[in-house]
Every structure is written in structure tokens, then in C-alpha cells.
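Morning F.,

Quick status update on the modeling queue. The single chain you submitted on Monday has been processed. Sequence for confirmation:
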Amino acid sequence: MRVAFIGLGVMGYPMAGHLAAAGHDVVVYNRTAPKAARWCEQHGGGASCATPAAAAAGAEIVFTCVGNDDDVREVILGEHGVVDGILSGSVIVDHTTVSATVAREIHAIAARRSVGFLDAPLSGGQAGAENGQLTIMVGGDAEVFERAEPVMAAYAKAITRIGPVGTGQLAKMVNQICIAGVVQGLSEGLHFAQRAGLDPAVVIQAISKGAAQSWQMDNRWETMVNGEFEFGFAVDWMRKDLGIALDEAQRNGARLQMTELVDGFYAEVQKLGGNRWDTSSLIARLEKG
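C-alpha cells below.
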């Protein structure tokens, strides 16, 4: 299949690579052209285009994975954006974590051009993208989803259609709300263990096979104890995601008291200089105190 990939960041770069490895004809666009050229060289072909519209021309599916609401609007709806080049009958799959409002807005504009649209935010981070083991939450029409799902399988271990457009983003909000609570709980548990004079390694061995077990515990406890945060999903991005969830809660009436609290804790981490630290750095504010 001829596909386009817009946005070659820490997630998009390897995801586009998996599409090429699966045999698809991949064209790419990135705001910094040298990175797109490097991708083409690394993956033995493909084309780097000067605009999103040029990348979308002739593509059956256009994937986007950029930064935030404004970035998505720019690459899809802006001057020389995807909608200026995409053909009727094609599909746009947006992997960016954005608001459900933006997803619905783009869907409405795409529909007027007979273009399908899926909001398909990701979970699994950079490692998941590199290893082709992402989890994807998708909002959109069932028939559009059925066309895109086999292609997304090149970089995913789990792909679930949640419901109509916007519900993929809402499910991603649930994901981030849950992660925030788990990481805060793990941070406090490890902090408590150290203050109590316990060996964290022994404690984790004792509790990690029981009800307290989590992905965060299995993969982050040791680096958290060692104060190592230079990897993974950045605090700045987590605050962006939690902000989206808190804004949505204002609209739907959900009470996100814990989420609001942890968002404030991440703001404290930012004040410590941890903007680009991994989200597990919540423990840093406890140790500083």
C-alpha cells in the first residue's frame, strides 16, 4: 500500500520504519527536512516531501504523529496541509494525543472531502514504537478502521476501536489518568521504603507478584531509586496530556481530584528542571523534601 507518514519524532520515526519493513511504499514529511532525508537513507528508499500536501498526494492512508492540537491542525488543515493533497477515498490516521474536540473537527472537514478519519492515540512510549509493540486506542467509523487496522499492525501489539471519532482520544485520557495515579503511588511507596530503612530491591521482590504489581513497578522501580530519569515519556508531554484530560473533565463533569493533584506534582518536577525527565521522576520531589 502507498502510505504517507507526517512527523518523524521519537515515535513517528520508528513507526514509519516498521511500515517500510512491512513492505509498504512509504513517503515521509518532517518539519526538519534533514531528519526526513536521514530516514529515507536508513530505510533504503522512500521519498521525502517538502509539504504534508505533497506527501499525501497519491497515498491511500496518511499517518500523522506530531505534538499537540495546533500542530495537528497545521499539518492537516493548514496551508499545504494534508487535506490540500489527499485524494477522495483515502484515510487520515492521527496518532497524536490531542483533544477529542480537534479530532471531531478534523473528521468533519475530512468527511466533506470524502476522506476517512481515525483518531488513534498511542501507548507504549518510545520503546514500544521502536519494538513495534504499541497499544492503539482508535475512534472512527468501523469500515474506516477495518481498512487501516492491518496497516497499523506493523507497529502495534494491540489495536482497539473504542467507538466513533473522538473516543480514541477519550480512552487515551483514561490511560494517562491511570498512569498518573500508579506512578505517584509507586513513588510514595519507594520513598516510604527508603525512609523506613528497607532494601527497595527486597521489597519489590516481595510485592511485585501480588496486587501491587504494575508495568511501572516492573520497569521503573530501580531507575527511580537511583534517580535516573533521562529516558521515556517526558514530564512536559505528560502535563500536556493531563491538561487535555482535565479540560475534558470540565466539560463532562468528571471529578479528577487525584489527576489534578498529580498534575501539580509534575509542575513541581518541572521547577526542579525535570521538564524532559521521564514521568517516573515524581519521586524526585519527594526525595528533595
